[in-house]
């Protein structure tokens, strides 16, 4: 049965051009309707299964006995990590190793600590918004989204603020598709060389903190935890890279996507102005509607059946969050941007289960404060051109968003 379903006439949704050109919707709509667990026999990344419906994605997320995130089996992207250049981290681990390392960093985003961040985030957000030009086109992604997120990252790591642009750079290096003409790196060797520089910079911070009393920052937490204090070189780079990307890409791209969605749906912007209590809903709806992480991949540990399909041990299983978040059988009017939904947090953009994004509440907090401060200033915006989107099948990135403040 399983072999019969592996048809050569398959749909490949792994092409990064689909997301850079924003042409992915009809392909996923067809898969959800006709073949929701779909086998793609040939792609640039080899054969893989596409899981496209909300409930099926959720089932895979929760079943880490059958579906592995392990680096040695290929990791978490449809593209395998190059052999010999793997960068393990707890997102690329299964329990029990995953559990111990995740627990090491989780306290920094515990609710009590998020409350401590509130005033700092608000002060920075206010300063960034007040410095924006009026009646003049500027790049929202650069001036707001990037600046606010790398300031927060620097705080989490206790990284030198004057060098915080390096954090954005290393995040871009870590997730870059090397086949893109405008990629920040153009080979795995070049990527590795840049990430080694990142590791060297963070190793200096580590060495300064490992023998000092513990402090409440990510480097000190990692250096003092039995689960992470003895990371080898590649795992050290992988873990730092994970924390940088995780603390950067969801938030910065959602900051840009939220403004874009509100400008493209002006009735929703007016609703927000009249009902500012909807800001938390807006944040969740933005994250669902945009879906900053397009997919996560697992590798089948065993032969397993999913939605009537026979998946073989060793197969790639790709959960397309971008599709699950548009599943009309689960989310009413899923292709529409609606900030007063009854269940705004019903989305897959943060994942689920043991690998749910550890910093989800911090991301929501930063976005909430941004929109509170925008409304406090009654800022009104006009899009001045299309966004420049990232060439990637993993991160739904917005590299540039030209806008103008018109009041």
From TrEMBL:
It holds the Pfam family p450. The keyword Oxidoreductase applies. Keywords: Heme, Iron, Metal-binding, Monooxygenase, Oxidoreductase. InterPro entries: Cyt_P450 (IPR001128), Cyt_P450_B (IPR002397), Cyt_P450_CS (IPR017972), Cyt_P450_sf (IPR036396). Transmembrane segments: none annotated. The keyword Iron applies. Its cofactor is heme. GO terms for molecular function: heme binding; iron ion binding; monooxygenase activity; oxidoreductase activity, acting on paired donors, with incorporation or reduction of molecular oxygen. Belongs to the cytochrome P450 family. This is Cytochrome P450. It comes from Bradyrhizobium macuxiense.
């Amino acid at each position: 049965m399983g072999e019969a379903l592996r048809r050569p006439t398959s749909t490949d949704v792994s092409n990064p051009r689909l997301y850079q050109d924003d042409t992915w919707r009809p392909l996923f709509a067809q898969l959800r309707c006709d073949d929701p667990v779909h086998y793609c026999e040939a792609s640039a990344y080899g054969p893989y299964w596409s899981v496209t419906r909300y409930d099926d994605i959720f089932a895979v997320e929760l079943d880490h006995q059958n579906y592995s995130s392990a680096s040695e089996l290929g990791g978490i992207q449809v593209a395998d990590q190059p052999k010999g250049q793997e960068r393990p981290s707890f997102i690329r681990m299964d329990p029990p190793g995953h559990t111990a390392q995740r627990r090491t960093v989780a306290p920094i985003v515990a609710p009590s600590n998020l409350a401590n961040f509130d005033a700092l985030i608000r002060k920075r957000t206010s300063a960034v918004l007040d410095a924006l030009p009026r009646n003049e086109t500027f790049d929202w992604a650069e001036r707001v989204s990037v600046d606010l997120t790398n300031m927060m990252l620097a705080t989490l790591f206790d990284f030198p603020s004057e060098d915080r642009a390096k954090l954005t750079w290393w995040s871009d290096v870590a997730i870059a598709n090397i086949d893109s003409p405008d990629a920040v790196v153009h080979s795995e060797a070049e990527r590795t060389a840049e990430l080694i520089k990142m590791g060297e910079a963070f190793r200096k911070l580590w060495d300064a903190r490992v023998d000092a009393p513990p402090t409440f920052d990510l480097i000190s937490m990692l250096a003092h935890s039995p689960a992470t204090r003895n990371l080898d070189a590649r795992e050290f780079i992988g873990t730092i890279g994970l924390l940088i990307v995780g603390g950067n890409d969801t938030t910065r791209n959602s900051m840009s996507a939220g403004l874009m969605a509100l400008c493209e749906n002006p009735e929703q912007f007016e609703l927000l102005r009249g009902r500012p209590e909807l800001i938390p809903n807006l944040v969740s709806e933005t994250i669902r509607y945009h879906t900053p992480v397009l997919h996560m991949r697992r590798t089948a540990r065993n032969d397993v059946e999913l939605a009537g399909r026979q998946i073989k041990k060793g197969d790639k299983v790709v959960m397309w969050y971008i599709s699950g978040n548009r599943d009309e059988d689960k989310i009413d009017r899923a292709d529409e941007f609606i900030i007063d939904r009854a269940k705004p947090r019903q989305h897959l953009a943060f994942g689920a289960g043991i690998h749910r994004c550890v910093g989800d509440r911090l991301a929501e907090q930063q976005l909430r404060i941004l929109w509170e401060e925008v409304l406090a200033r009654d800022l009104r915006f006009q899009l001045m051109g299309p966004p420049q989107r990232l060439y990637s099948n993993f991160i739904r990135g917005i590299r540039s968003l030209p806008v103008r403040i018109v009041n």
